[in-house]
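Running this now, will post back.
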Amino acid sequence: MEAREVLPDPAAMAAYGARIAARLRAGDVVALEGGLGAGKTTLARAILAALGHADEVPSPTFTIIETYAAPPLRLAVVHADFYRLEDPAELAEIGLDEYREGAVLLAEWPQNAGGFGHEPGCLAISLGPRGESGEGGRIAIARGGADWLGRMP
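Update: finished.
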């Protein structure tokens, strides 16, 4: 199943993130795809804010993984940025499976980690500019796994 969403401004991105957050369950993956500057971290921040995170959300580009506990969030979250991974085998060294237990995974650059589209709880969101230079904001194309049936944002 696929859904398209036009995100003309930051408020629309925040609202979209809130709709995603409201539908998340432990074990879900939100795989955020798109080029540099596409809005992956911005959407991850909107999801975390909607789950109850009130502080700064650093980009995990250098740390690779940032974790957020429940409580205070409604669900535990692992925010990962796999941009710097050269091989999916590196995930074992990082211990991603242990981090994911009972948590939601927000994955930026999921293709560098081997992808998560095979998981029934994966919501893959491809973000890109709307218009040639992005002056119209962003467009999000969401593809949900079997577990997302009836709860697509």
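Helices lie at 10-23, 40-50, 90-94, 96-100. More later if anyone needs it.
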